[in-house]
């Protein structure tokens, strides 16, 4: 028997619905406070209740997953709530490459992999003293944009950082990552790489809606100036974007380069879903400020299939279903070890 398991948050509904559609058993590791929500969905076969997601490391949860032959699909919540050592110590087979998740969480490693993939990355600023143009200041890990802030110079940086510390949003000890601000049209490029077929698929693109930077953009500058709140980039939701077709060739090249770089830097490579996140400027030049080495929540907008997947599959295919399909194919070919770690 093969089951698909995931944590109850982020894109769990999409992942488990896709698994059910592919005829696989579905298991949700669910915090008690969310039980009522997830019981509404009949495609979830089994709910394993926990007080906190860290219980996934405990024997009881791991043996339930093992008895069901479960493969765990990692998503943003796993990365946000567990450190890399904890994730790497999970005994249940993880879909994709669990070792690359460390490269997603650690800003320095992340930057290294992005350079290796020849992605055009905004310049990192090592010291607040060196801020000479608009920068964005980020926290470590998958913070979801919470506690991020913009700074125009060193003084601005310290004023805002101190303010966030006094509000308890960030801590004094926290090391922050400073990067030049890239302005343009947001595009989060979603891919799937199949090591079974050795093929890269472009799934779709999305934009994030972030509060309260987006709220601020909706009021006239006269009012903006009067607010002294440090606006955050906390993700609230996503919406679709379809790219100019002339941009697609470069999109595939970026995806291919990323897959190649991951193969060289972190075995067994970038298997399964991933996302390259950035902006297009006025010359349609892309700058990538981030990647996610697993399914992103932005794929939730295409639960019934994306425009680009409708070109590749003659059926509705979500990213969750694509993951389940890969697992089914790998199982038939007795190559599950190729797609899990
Ligand atoms: P991240 O956690 O790096 O994905 O950043 C969260 C959000 O901050 C993104 O969705 C963007 O809106 C914004 N952002 C991050 N880095 C940059 C950058 N270098 N330039 C402009 N916006 C950025």
Kindly provide the radius of gyration, computed on alpha-carbon positions and rounded to a whole number of angstroms.
20 Å
Ligand inventory: adenosine monophosphate
- Helix tally equals 14
Question: Can you write the helix and strand succession as a string?
Answer: EHEHEHEHHHHEEEHEEEHHEHEEHHH
CATH topology of the largest domain, what is it called? D-amino Acid Aminotransferase, Chain A, domain 1
Count of spatially separate domains = 3
Instruction: Report the CATH architecture of the largest domain.
Output: 2-Layer Sandwich
If you had to describe this structure to a student in words, what would you say it looks like?
The protein is α+β, with helices and mostly antiparallel strands and 341 residues long. It folds into 3 domains: 3-94, 3-Layer(aba) Sandwich (Rossmann fold); 105-119 and 183-227 and 234-319, D-amino Acid Aminotransferase, Chain A, domain 1; 124-180, Dna Ligase, domain 1. The chain contains 14 helices and 13 strands. The chain has helices at residues 12-21, 35-38, 59-67, 76-81, 84-88, 101-105, 107-116, 154-166, 213-217, 221-226, 248-265, 309-312, 319-332, 336-339; strands spanning 3-7, 25-31, 46-50, 70-72, 124-125, 135-138, 149-151, 177-180, 185-194, 199-212, 233-240, 272-280, 286-292. It has a 5-stranded antiparallel β-sheet with strand order 11-10-9-12-13. Strand 1 (3-7), helix 1 and strand 2 (25-31) form a beta-alpha-beta unit. The longest helix has 18 residues, at 248-265. The protein starts with a strand and ends with a helix. The site of adenosine monophosphate (AMP) has 14 residues, from strand 6, strand 10 and strand 13.
């Amino acid at each position: 028997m093969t089951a698909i398991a995931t944590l109850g948050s982020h894109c769990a509904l999409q992942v488990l619905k896709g698994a059910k559609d592919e005829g696989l058993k579905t298991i949700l590791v669910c915090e008690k406070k969310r039980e009522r929500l997830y019981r509404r969905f009949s495609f979830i076969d089994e709910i394993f209740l926990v007080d906190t997601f860290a219980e996934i490391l405990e024997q009881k949860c791991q043996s339930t997953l093992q008895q069901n032959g479960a493969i765990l699909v990692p998503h943003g919540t796993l990365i946000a709530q567990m450190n890399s050592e904890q994730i790497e110590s999970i005994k249940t087979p993880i879909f994709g490459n669990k070792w690359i998740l460390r490269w997603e969480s650690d800003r320095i490693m992340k930057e290294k992999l992005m350079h290796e993939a020849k992605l055009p990355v905004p310049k990192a600023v090592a010291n607040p003293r060196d801020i000479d143009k608009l920068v964005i200041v980020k926290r470590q890990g998958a913070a979801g944009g919470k506690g991020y802030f913009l700074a125009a110079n060193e003084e601005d940086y310290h004023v805002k950082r101190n303010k966030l510390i006094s509000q308890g949003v960030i801590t004094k000890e926290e090391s922050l990552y400073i990067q030049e601000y890239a302005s343009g049209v947001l595009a989060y490029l979603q891919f799937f790489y199949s090591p079974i077929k050795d093929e890269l698929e472009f799934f779709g693109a999305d934009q994030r809606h972030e509060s309260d930077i987006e709220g601020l953009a909706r009021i006239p500058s006269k009012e903006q100036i009067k607010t002294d709140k440090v606006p955050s980039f906390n993700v609230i939701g996503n919406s679709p974007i379809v790219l100019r077709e002339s941009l697609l060739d470069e999109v595939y090249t970026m995806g291919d380069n990323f897959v190649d770089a991951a193969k060289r830097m972190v075995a067994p490579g970038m298997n399964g879903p991933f996302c390259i996140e950035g902006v297009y400027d006025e010359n349609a030049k892309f700058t990538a400020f981030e990647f996610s080495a697993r399914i992103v929540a932005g794929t939730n907008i295409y639960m019934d299939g994306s425009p680009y997947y409708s070109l590749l599959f003659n059926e509705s295919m979500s990213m969750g279903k694509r993951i389940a399909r890969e697992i089914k194919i790998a199982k038939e070919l007795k190559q599950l070890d190729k797609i899990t770690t």
